[in-house]
Request: fold
Amino acid sequence: MVLDDPVAVRLDADIVSSLVGPDLARIGREHLDQGRVFELGQDDGGVVAIVLDSARKEFDVWVGVVNGALTGECDCDEDGPLCSHAVAVTLAALEDGIPFTSVTEQEDDDEERFADLASTLTFDQLVDLVARQAVADPDFADELMALA
Reply:
């Protein structure tokens, strides 16, 4: 069953720590405790903020629950699905009582994005692209023949 509306998610600091591990949780907590999280607010079922690292470099961060997984987007170079900045934002949101809602990425968004891209191509470019894809993907070829 797919829900059209976002669903509230229960998170707390212990759950976050268990998801990211003790080291990342500790670093995220340090960012928060040292006052490095700014402009905290709700956005797209998640939370956005600006986080300063220990060198005072500024990072834009979004954290949310997508397809049931805690997910973060940050413009830092840290590896992994969540960085210390995203953990700090998550903890800040929990302390401020900002709710998280679980959202499901919609294929419609991808279709719209690809349709926009395709609209920038010439007719000949589109024909060439479709022909190459049909040769590479038998399922696509079957769908093409069914539509033609």
